């Protein structure tokens, strides 16, 4: 919180106040910016827009947060209608399929569950052999 405040970012939403967006900044920020506070400063305008949406961590997993920041930087205020609909769960699904809001709402938890499942499989699949770290099998 101290770094955000130093940058003039006064967050009240729990998601932003706790800087839960921090990991989402790393892959979308220039590699030359390595400090967490500087990353937040680089995305300050977008983070304030995110804060105003009062998002929930369950919806805004890191990739979704990154997508929000990029789309807001590129298109500004016009994207907030989409993101408000996402936060409020106003996507639709009918016989033709999902709209974009519902598509993202369905993708995010599926991605999260898939990542968890991939870790589980990688750690416990006997056909894959022992897990490797740093090029050496564990226990070697």
Protein architecture, described:
This protein is mainly alpha-helical. It has one domain (2-125). Helix content is 55%, strand content 6%. The chain contains eight helices and four strands; from the N terminus they run αααααααββαββ. The chain has helices spanning 2-6, 14-17, 22-25, 36-42, 44-53, 62-75, 80-87, 100-124; strands spanning 93-94, 97-98, 132-133, 136-137. The strands form two sheets. Strands 1-2 form a two-stranded antiparallel sheet. Strand 1 and strand 2 form a beta hairpin. Helix 5 (44-53) packs across helix 6 (62-75) and helix 7 (80-87) packs across helix 8. The longest helix is centred in the last third of the chain and has 25 residues, at 100-124. 18% of the residues are buried. Residues 119-140 have low confidence and may be disordered.
């Amino acid at each position: 919180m101290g770094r955000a405040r130093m940058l003039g970012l006064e967050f009240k939403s729990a998601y932003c106040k706790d800087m839960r967006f921090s990991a989402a900044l790393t892959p979308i920020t220039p590699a030359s910016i390595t400090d967490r506070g500087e990353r937040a400063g680089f995305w300050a305008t977008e983070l304030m827009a995110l804060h105003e949406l009062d998002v929930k961590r369950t919806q805004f997993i890191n990739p979704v947060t990154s997508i929000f920041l990029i789309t807001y930087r590129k298109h500004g205020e016009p994207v907030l209608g989409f993101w408000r609909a996402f936060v409020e769960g106003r996507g639709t699904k009918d016989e033709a399929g999902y709209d974009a809001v519902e598509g993202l709402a369905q993708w995010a938890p599926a991605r999260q569950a898939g990542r968890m499942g991939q870790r589980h499989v990688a750690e416990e699949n006997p056909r894959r052999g022992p897990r490797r770290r740093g090029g050496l099998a564990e226990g070697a």
